[in-house]
Amino acid sequence: MTTLVASPATRREQYDRDGVVHVKGLLDPAEVAAIRDTYMEQVERDRTAVGATHEVDEDDILARYPRFMQPHRRPDLAIGRLARQYLSDPRIVDLTTDLVGSVWGAQSMFYFKPPTARGQAMHQDNYFLRAHPETCVAAWIAVDDCDAENGALAVVPGSHTMEVVCPEEADATESFTTGLVRPPEGMAAVQTEMRAGDVLFFHGSMVHGSLPNTSADRFRRSLILHFVPQASLEVSRFYLPLVDPNTGADVTIDEATGGGPCGDTWEGGAH
């Protein structure tokens, strides 16, 4: 199965049922090209500015193309201004609000995923964000056409109803991250296929991940935004301050405390 069935009638109904909604063509080709070119220019000029270069060995292709974490906090950089722009983009914010109510911006990330890059094992976003008592929601913007070959996302519709769990160890030959969450019994992953400019909105408890990029010459670049409902009372320290998408102002809520799903030794953080 390679598509997400867009029934019942409304996006909110689909989100409530499946935990994921695929919106086609939300960004136009010129916008996508601007995102792609701006981030490629930055990674070629200085990959350490917001890149998580510590995550992999230097001989890994992802050391050359590290994921960029929280670029919206760097207004001095073009990538930062662009990330903050999309954290406040009315098309994205309004759709997210339709799904979960009014939101704060919590995170921006950019993944390059060049050919031969490993994927990311199945996981749940709110394991990291720890928004409570609500949960985060992702807006995953495709910057390239993507499918199974170049490592597009696979999602497990319906898994958003499960609790956030402590991951087990992932296969390091397949995933650059270490945690793995298996789909609930009776549920299966659906391989997405997206065109550049499509946006996938999904629930923070939904299990999702991706396999390695096995294509010969196709990147699978993506700009990923996370929001938390304004009804959230706390979030992990890494995501503070939040962003008011209407004004651009910083917003602070309580910092999540306690051990999370893995117990007292777990401190949370980026993903």
TrEMBL record:
Keywords, alphabetical: Dioxygenase, Oxidoreductase
Transmembrane is among the record's keywords: no
Entry keyword DNA damage: no
Record Pfam families: PhyH
Signal peptide bounds: none
Residue stretches spanning the membrane: none
Any one GO molecular-function label of the UniProt entry: dioxygenase activity
Superkingdom of origin organism: Bacteria
Name of the featured protein: Phytanoyl-CoA dioxygenase family protein
Species per Swiss-Prot/TrEMBL record: Occultella glacieicola
